[in-house]
Amino acid sequence: MTELSHRSRFRRRHIGALAAGATSLALLASFVATPATAVTTVPTSNAAWQIHDSARPGLDTGSIRAINDSRVDGYGNIFVKVVDSTSPPLMNGQMMRGFGLTFDGVGTFSSTNSVPMGEVAVTRRIDLGAASEAARFFDTFTNTSTSPVTVEVSFGGALGYGSGAQQGTVAATTNGDTAIGGEDSWVVVAQPGTNTRPIGTVLGTPAPFDGAIVRTGNQERNPFETPLVTVGHEANFYGFINSISLAPGETQSLLRYVHAGSTGAGAVADASADLAAIASAPDLTGLGAAEVCTIANWDLPEDGCADAPAVELPPLPAPQPTTTTIKYDVVGKSIAQLQADMELGVVTSEEITQAYLDRIAAYDGGPFGFNTFITVAPDALDQARAADAKRAAGETGELLGIPMGIKDIYDTYDMPTTGGSAALEGWTPAEDSYQVAKLREAGAVILGKTNLSEWANSGSRSESGYGQTWNALAPSKTSFGSSGGSAVALAASLAAGTMGTQTGVSLYAPATGSSMTMFRGTDGMASTRGVMPLTYGQDYAGPIARTVTDLAFILNATTGTDPGELLTAQADAHRPEDWTEFLEVDALEGKRVGFIPSSFVSGFADDDTGSAMLASLSELESAGATLVEMGNPPSAGSAPSVNGWALYISQQQSFPFPNSSTLKADERVLPYNRGTDNTGGAVVPPPTDQQIQARIDARQQSKDRIAQWMDAADVDFVVYAGFLSDIYNNDGNSNQHSSDRATGVPTSNYGVPTVVVPMGANGHGYPMALQIVGRAWDDAAVLGAGYALEQRVQGQLTSQFAPPLTVIGDDGEVIPPAAEQPALAHTGSESQPIAIVSLALLGAGLLLAVGATARRRQRS
């Protein structure tokens, strides 16, 4: 820890608004609403900067989403860690967000909220000059407690990926070398060649000034514990760390600049000159005397600081609730466990539902909320009471009284269906989608509508007009998309089961990222009627769940032929009467399982994920399977397109737009999704049955090719990794800045069934999963294989960042938890502690207790 000089301490002023006598953030003012417009792009003289402010999708980190002609991929975020607290805050060391950053229409983004990190209040201000290619970041830190506090702050992000032409490497520093240290006041990062802009960062006054950076870290993997490396993929993830010590009531600030150079020959030299000029004479325009006097990382004149007024900070949000009146703990509970406890009279659906509602209130909103729900059903408790009444009358059912989250792309007659877009805010369809109706028939409680990427466009993130979803296992990371809200709601125990959709990766990526399981069946195994389309005939609407057993329960309710959808015509002929009958512990015994070694090798990352997943195939052998090395699958071929939006709109009684082109051109659509669907403004007629059948027939040819490929190798299944890399921060732009998902898994392109099974953590603590793929209509066998692997591996991870709520009894006393939570394991050097959840309770006895008909048929 660097001891502050008298001169440095003298400039740091106590503030009036958050005085030393304040002992709790709860005493501060309530949350200030933020505007809802669109992610903000600011042009400068020769560049365009995208800033993550509070405008939609409301990431609100202040980081740079992208700069044209550069490899900036989420840069300028800050991670904050309180290092000397006896009771560290829940999100200690995570990426800061929730500032309410508001753009003034010229070049300044200002906090309308302070954000609490324990007893430290944090604000941001960003200034972009129209004639400059530099953004100024001014971050303040105020100690609201009565004791001294030390915090570490890491500033940075991703400036490239992989190696070679895509990698961002140090091209210049203050002292002329390529090693970053406290003696540097600025650094330039560039890619090989001259086609991309070098990006410079001005860090402040160098050592021996005591406010200089203390070290560098990996901004994608706990920068406070993981040093920045100089070679390989992780060399792209720059984190510049300062340490500041705050007296009670004191404010200090950190001032940094990010510079976008020009392309072409001499760009690094030009950028270096610009950065040197900023470092020698930083532009402080617009900062008041009180603010300048708080700056800790620059050796600035102290004239006037003794008489400078106090810094006034915007209010802090009201604290999120942390209590519940429900004694029953739903954290980590599977549907099977909840159902068994309701059957035994241990708990009611009303109590379970209230417990989830309390957890949504605690963990889904506020600056560090996961943002998993767009709408929470106002009648959720009424639905639960109705389920309890049915149970009291003698009814039973696998989903009776089970609270379910539904991706906000499924129609619901009693709640808006937005597709994640503010353009459809408030629009409520007249009828449920087919699968939602089936869930209601099964007695499920429709708890609410979960967040997604707008129109299900992205597999990398779940960003909508209603906020962006954050990962529950690693709260600075992406949730993936497009079904991120559904997966994270499960991982944070905000729902018991969820429904999502997949066109490309949108079920398996979020499920893998949350260490959940999912099932994508053969095209047509489940109806997509009443589900907003992305690619008709390739879209699949299906479940994400905590266990494979839970998947079976949901599939029992939702799969089968829908008389209103031609795509499902064959479903009843192939759907098992009871999916749980295929949940056998020896389902992999004697099976031949194919794998493609090259599919376990990342195209750009060099962590251990791919090799660890390849090694995990030994679990299949231990379960009785034989591994078979295979070559790549044949091409999927092409199929005639069908305008799914025209079909969807034609099935609505009242849709607010005449066609999808008009809808997606609406100004309320996220700017990078706006205008992505073009029908020329004409009202497109819905497709005919003949056109739909032609697409089905062409997709069948793809399925035939996969079957022939598997037949030639004589395999029952083929396995692929879920991911091939770590999971990355949530503020990026490119697909690479989420993870490497390029395994080549043929599920979606061919329309064949897949189950995802959690496989524990990689060496950095991030979740891994295996995908088991089968032939068309081998859905039940694929599910059974997933069950057998799940029972053997028990590799599900759980979050430390949504712990059980404090239970308050009727007389106001605090009730201790009935049982301790699973022990949390700290894996590697990652700051996201992750636990392995035992699945032992999913044996035959529990299934029988809930009336399931699963059989454990042991072969002789």
From TrEMBL:
Transmembrane segments: 834-854
Annotated SUPFAM superfamilies: Amidase signature (AS) enzymes
Name of this protein: Amidase
KW NAD (keyword) present: no
Molecular function via GO: amidase activity
Stretches assigned to the Amidase domain: 351-783
Superkingdom in the source lineage: Bacteria
The keyword Transmembrane is annotated on this UniProt entry: yes
InterPro entries referenced in this protein's UniProt entry, alphabetically: Amidase_dom, AS_sf, TAT_signal
Any Pfam family: Amidase
EC number(s) on file: 3.5.1.4
Top EC category: hydrolase
PANTHER family: AMIDASE (PTHR42678), OS04G0183300 PROTEIN (PTHR42678:SF34)
